[in-house]
Design brief:
By secondary structure, the chain is α+β, with helices and mostly antiparallel strands. It contains 4 helices and 7 strands. Its EC number is 2.3.1.57.
Length: 150
């Protein structure tokens, strides 16, 4: 996976992003309750959606949100979604994507990126901690609220 690059989500890449196959059990962790209940508060003009390509193949997808006016601190610079194809997991795709989001956040003047995740054996907790997120609290739904200090 040496040829990783980001591209804006487009009509050409959206089908591939939507059809990424995850490992068994991971589907249950795609949308924490907090995000489900806050999606209507996301302004499409602040959304940062990208696919990760390895050569010409879509191997990952991420959605960030940058909104310095957001009423909730966790929505100001946030990682809303990250999906990595099952066969590409463990090869640096997710780390590459999170670092790209962090770089974009820095360019926009943010000092941290947040993410929400549910605990569970097949969940993303180990990944988020491995790329530098640390738990800073809990949501009203009992999920972990994590931050990556930039």
């Amino acid at each position: 996976m040496a040829d990783l690059r980001l591209e804006e989500l487009s009509a050409q890449t959206i089908a591939a992003a939507n059809s990424l196959t995850l490992k068994p059990g991971q589907e249950a962790f795609l949308a924490p309750e907090t995000y489900t209940h806050n999606e209507d508060k996301i302004d499409p003009t602040t959304t940062w959606a990208r696919v990760v390509l390895d050569g010409d193949e879509v191997v990952g997808y991420l959605v960030g949100n940058f909104d310095e006016e957001a009423s909730d601190d966790f929505r100001r610079a946030a990682l809303w979604r990250i999906n990595v194809a099952a066969d590409a997991q463990g090869s640096g795709v997710g780390k590459f994507a999170v670092h790209a989001l962090a770089d974009e956040a820095r360019k926009r003047g943010f000092t941290r990126v947040t993410v929400v995740w549910e605990s569970g054996e097949e969940g993303p907790e180990r990944f988020f901690q491995a790329v530098g997120f640390h738990v800073i609290g809990e949501t009203p739904y009992g999920e972990n609220l994590g931050a990556l200090d930039l």
